Amino acid sequence: MTSSCLPPADRERRIILQRLAGVGLAAAATAVGCPLPALAAEGPEKPRLTIAVGGKGLFYYLPLTIAERLGYFKDEGLNVEIVDFPGGAKALQALMGGSADLVSGSFEHTISLQAKGQWIKAVALEGRMAGIVLAMRKDRAARYKSPKDLKGLKIGVTAPGSSTNMFVNTLLAKEGLKPDAVSIIGVGAGAGAIAAIRRGDVDAVANLDPVISTLEVIGDVVPVVDTRTEAGMQYVYGGAYAAGCIYATNDFIIHNPRTTQAVVNALVRADRWLQKATPEQVVATVPPEFYGSDRGLYKVSLMKNTAAFSPDGTISPDGVQNVYKVLRSFDPTVAGARIDLSKTYDNSFALQAQRKYK
């Protein structure tokens, strides 16, 4: 390679050329007489990875588990350890603290952190519908007419600061109420949430499936706001939404473009598998602890969420804009900051993955 093609001292251009190779432009670079560095054909820069997630058993993050269980990460040359936390806010803390390389989490965090001067970026979408449900104990649900009726209640969320907490804040903002109008209690994303309702520790929960479906079948709750449906999404968020995603720090993405591409390849492949899979195939793939002793309930719950999964891993500008609009409605830090939404996500990795897995 000549120096005119790639100045040896120019690290940023070297990174860009590596990225170009990763998004399928190697032939174009060769055609203009500037062959890409041999490094572009090598494997991931960091083959051993840790991905944090806040509630691995939730359908919100199902593509992550599918990629793991079907060996898609291994196919990309990755050895991935998935570390499960009680909620998305804890997973984010792991990333920012350096104990995780990437997060399977909520897109909202890319915006809320930028408002605080910290930069992370989503590189693949897992879900295009929030899938969060506000479910109330039966005695409370009978009196619910609007989010005004939440004032003074104890509401269980996966973890304070997580997307379920932001969901509650969004509902309160619709009636001009501030987040402190209710008491937020972290109850986790599994058995802890179910127990909190059954013991009467909380009046309502904002959670996801299979937690919500389990509580419905038991008969302990009634959903009053449901973003597993198009109507619920329209009511809460105004339409398209960027929900569960894979995100990482900008620094990680810049210095590990091939690793990032490998992760996204696996996730997009999982997204596509889920579009064709039957409920029986999904149950046969996930760990038994996901459904416990009731495979039938898991299937029923899954069918309520199939429309939420991203078909191809890309993030729509409209979905990003709606997330921003919602966050501004209750988060004064976001409302008062200049946010560059174009820096909250990067679809180039997902587009390359689509070319590889058609």
Description:
This protein is an alpha/beta fold and 358 residues long. It has 3 domains: 11-41, no CATH class; 48-130 and 241-356, 3-Layer(aba) Sandwich (D-Maltodextrin-Binding Protein, domain 2); 133-226, D-Maltodextrin-Binding Protein, domain 2. 44% of the residues lie in helices and 15% in strands. The protein has helices spanning 11-22, 26-31, 62-69, 72-75, 88-97, 108-114, 138-141, 163-174, 191-199, 211-218, 230-237, 250-255, 257-276, 279-285, 295-303, 317-330, 332-335, 348-356; strands at residues 48-53, 79-84, 102-106, 120-125, 133-137, 154-157, 183-186, 204-207, 221-226, 244-249. It has a 5-stranded mixed sheet, sandwiched between helices. A 5-stranded mixed sheet has the order 7-6-8-5-9, sandwiched between helices. Strand 6 (154-157), helix 8 and strand 7 form a beta-alpha-beta unit. The longest helix is centred in the C-terminal third of the chain and has 20 residues, at 257-276. The protein is globular and about 60 Å long.
